[in-house]
Amino acid sequence: MKSYLVKLLALLLSTSVFAQEEDSKSSPITFSGYLETYYVYDFNEPENNIRPPFVYSFNRHNEVSLNLGFLKASYNTEKVRANLALMTGTYAHANMANEPDVFKNIFEANAGAKISSAKNLWIDAGIFASHIGFESAIGKDSWNLTRSIFADNTPYFETGAKISYTTENEKWFLAGLFLNGWQRIERVDGNSLPSFGTQLTYKPNSSMTFNYSTFIGTDKPDSARLMRFYNNVYWIYQFHEKIGFTLGVDYGLEEPSVENTSVNKLYVLEAIFRFTLSAKASMDVRGEYYSDEHGILISTGTPNGFKTTGISTNVDFKIHDNVLWRTEIRSFISKDEIFVKNGEPVNDNMFITTSLSVDF
C-alpha cells in the first residue's frame, strides 16, 4: 500500500513539472494542492482525545493535527475532463474507515466526457464530491472553520456515474446520479441495490443560489434493507457586498425495519451570516438544529435520540492570498445527556478550534 501511494504521488509530482513547463494557456493539465492543520481544545476533555462520534472532521482534542492534505492533478479540454487527488489527515482517517486500504487515501478520482456537440451535457464516473449540501471537505471553500453537524453526517464524497446539464446562460444546472451508496466507494457487502440522486441548482444572478438535492437508496445489506429518502435544500444570498446569508433545510425519511412500512424522520435547520470586515478579514455566525430521534444517521441510545442545537462564530484572516488563518468557538446543547465530561454524561459540549490552511 505504501509503495502504491508513493508511485501515485510521484506521478502527480511529475505531472506538475510537465504542466509548469508547458504554456499555461495551452496545457490541459493542471496541478494543485491543499493543506489544513488545526488545533481543537474540547472543554469536556475526552480521555482518548477523540471528539464525539458524530464529528468526522477536526475531531482530535488537544493536539496539533492535519485535517486534510491532498495533491491533485486535473486534465481539462473542451470535451474531456479527469481528476485524481490523493489525501491524508484525520478527515481521511474518519471518513474512509469503512473502505478497503487501497481506497483510504483517494480524495477524488473521476473522468468525464461531453456527449453533445451543441449542449453542455456531460457524463462523469468515479469518485467525486457529494451533490448534497453547501459545505466542502476543503476548509477554505466553507464559510465556517468546522463543518456543521449536517455536513459531517451526510456524504462528503460519492462513487458512481452522473449525467449533468448546464444551460447556455449558466443559470440552471441539472444532474442525475447512479451511486454505490451513501458515502461509499465500495457498496456494502450483501447489498445488491444501487442508490440514486438528483440535483437542481438555479443561479438567477451572481449574488444568489438555490439548490435542491435528493438521495434515494439503502446503505444496508439486502437482509436488513431500509430504504432512505433524503432531501437537501439551501439558499445562498449575498444581499450586500459585506453581508452574506446561507439557509439550509434538510428532511430525511427511512424505513424503521424490513417488515414495517412506516417511516422514521429526521430534519435539520442551519443558518449562517457572513460579515466581510476588510479585504483580509471576515466573521461568520452560525446556528443549527439537528433532530434525529430514531437514529437514522446519528444513534445515541437515549430516550429522545439526537436532538442538538449548535451555535458558533469564527473569525478568518488572510495572511496571504493563499494562506488562511481561522479561529472558531462553538457549542452544542442536546436534549439528552449524550456527551461525556469527567466520566459523567452531560448535555453540552463547548470547544475552540484554530486552523491554518495553504492552497497552491
Describe the overall structure:
The model is unreliable at 15-24 (pLDDT under 50). This protein has helices at residues 2-21, 90-95, 149-152; strands at 29-42, 64-76, 80-88, 106-114, 120-129, 157-166, 172-179, 195-205, 208-217, 228-240, 243-254, 264-276, 281-292, 306-320, 323-334, 339-341, 344-346, 348-359. The strands form 2 sheets. A 16-stranded antiparallel β-barrel has the order 1-2-3-4-5-6-7-8-9-10-11-12-13-14-15-18. A two-stranded antiparallel sheet has the order 16-17. It is globular and about 65 Å long. Strand 8 (195-205) and strand 9 form a beta hairpin. Helix content is 8%, strand content 52%. With 360 residues, the chain is mostly beta strands.
Quick description:
This protein has 360 residues and is mainly beta. The protein contains 3 helices and 18 strands. The model is unreliable at 15-24 (pLDDT under 50).
Return the structural class.
Answer: mainly beta
* Number of strand segments: 18
The rounded distance between the terminal residues' Cα atoms is 26 Å
Strand line-up of the largest beta sheet: 1-2-3-4-5-6-7-8-9-10-11-12-13-14-15-18
Instruction: Outline the biggest β-sheet.
Output: 16 strands, antiparallel, barrel
Helix content: under 10%
The portion of residues forming beta strands comes to: over 45%
Mean pLDDT: 93
Number of H/I helices = 3
| Overall radius of gyration | 21 Å
Secondary-structure element sequence?
Answer: HEEEHEEHEEEEEEEEEEEEE
Instruction: Give the low-confidence spans.
Output: 15-24
Shape: globular
